[in-house]
Write a structure and sequence with these properties.
The chain has helices at residues 2-34, 39-51, 65-75, 91-95, 129-141, 176-179, 193-204, 217-227, 234-245, 268-284, 292-303, 311-315, 320-330; strands spanning 54-58, 80-84, 96-101, 106-111, 118-122, 143-146, 149-152, 158-163, 182-187, 262-264, 308-309. The protein is α/β, with parallel strands linked by helices. The protein has two domains: 22-205, P-loop containing nucleotide triphosphate hydrolases (Rossmann fold), CATH 3.40.50.300; 229-334, Helicase, Ruva Protein, domain 3, CATH 1.10.8.80. A five-stranded parallel β-sheet has the order 2-5-8-1-9. A two-stranded antiparallel ribbon has the order 3-4. Strand 6 and strand 7 (149-152) form a beta hairpin.
Length: 334
């Protein structure tokens, strides 16, 4: 009897994911109307959205980071807020504050821009530590504290932050505790020659586009619930744990040469987010179960910002991605 019930639930999940696939297809179509190329960026935005995880976008200026986030918010009809981070930004500028009403002789709450579904933290590494600490509570607890009271944020809530890796003036290094709250760190590369040709033509000869209507925000919440029901087999789960534990104890996996290069490995949030992102990746493929390939697809984006390198690693020009590639090539797939 139990087996019959499990089979029925499984078929219902497969049916629901198949039906939700049309929503994902429409969402991709909306994004491609605005963004030329950058397929990996669009895919990782969808993984973050469906996995309900914050995303850090890193790339040189002009690679459509801000445009992609705006397009995503418009596609799902989400409430959108953009915060331009600067060295003189204050926590109240993003969270809100208490203001005094002269007519009523009472204080009232003026909510800040974080009270939105999708918050774009543009050039996040330009703000000082106080602002980063204020944002940390919002990202972790999905609530804001103003004047001794806490205010819950509506779901879905995502922080999508951008940073420029080549500019040093007026920037601050993000604390590890905050980096750990980002599900993904996506590195954005230059477009191909043909993609850039299309971009130039679109700007020189703008053409009217038939924009698709915004998709219901309720569909996002439904898709997020389905993602959490995607099945992860014990062997795939063990594969995820081995990949993460190898960043902490590489000598236990035959990679003792990496030990002097690693200052600290991934936290348990790495395991959690790797499993959740793999589920979202499987959902994008309209599957109700996770394959090892799904894990490998999101592996670098989930873990590259959770590993600390030693001075010896930097002296050897070792990067987190190169270290992770060594681990990925060593741990056998189930």
């Amino acid at each position: 009897m139990e087996q019959v019930l499990e089979t029925r639930v499984w078929h219902e999940l497969e049916r629901d994911i198949e039906q939700a696939g049309s929503f994902v297809d429409d969402l991709r179509a909306c994004l491609r109307q605005t963004i030329v190329g950058q397929e990996d960026l669009l895919e990782k935005l969808l993984v973050g959205l469906l996995g309900n995880g914050h995303i850090l976008l890193e790339g040189v200026p002009g690679l459509a980071k801000t445009l992609a986030v705006k397009a995503l918010s418009q596609a799902v009809g989400a409430e959108f807020a953009r915060i331009q981070f600067t060295p003189d930004l204050l926590p109240a500028d993003i969270l809100g504050t208490m203001i005094f009403n002269l007519h009523t002789n009472e204080f009232s709450v003026k909510k800040g821009p974080v009270f939105a579904n999708l918050v774009l933290a543009d050039e996040i590494n330009r703000a000082p530590e106080k602002v980063q600490s204020a944002l940390l509570e919002v990202m972790q607890e999905q609530q804001v504290s103003i004047g001794g009271s806490s205010y819950a944020l509506e779901s879905p809530f995502l922080v999508l932050a951008t940073q420029n890796p080549i500019e040093q003036g007026g920037t601050y290094e993000l604390p590890e505790a905050q980096l750990d709250r980002f599900m993904l760190k996506v590195l954005i590369s230059y477009p191909s020659l043909e993609e850039e040709r299309t971009i130039v033509r679109h700007h020189l000869e703008p053409r009217p586009q038939d924009r698709l209507p915004a998709l219901p925000l309720a569909e996002v919440l439904r898709a997020q619930e389905l993602v959490r029901r995607v099945y992860v087999d014990e062997k795939v789960e063990s594969y995820i744990l081995d990949l993460v534990f190898c960043t902490r104890y590489p000598q236990q996996y035959g990679l003792a040469q990496l030990q002097p290069l690693i200052r600290f490995g991934s936290s348990p949030r790495g395991s959690i987010n790797l499993a959740l992102a793999a589920r979202a990746q499987a959902f994008l493929q309209k599957r109700s179960f996770v394959l090892p390939e799904d894990v490998r697809r999101v592996y670098f984006d989930v873990l590259r910002h959770r590993i600390g390198l030693t001075y010896a690693a930097r002296a050897e020009s070792m990067t987190a991605d190169a270290l992770l590639a060594t681990i990925l090539a060593t741990i056998p797939m189930p």
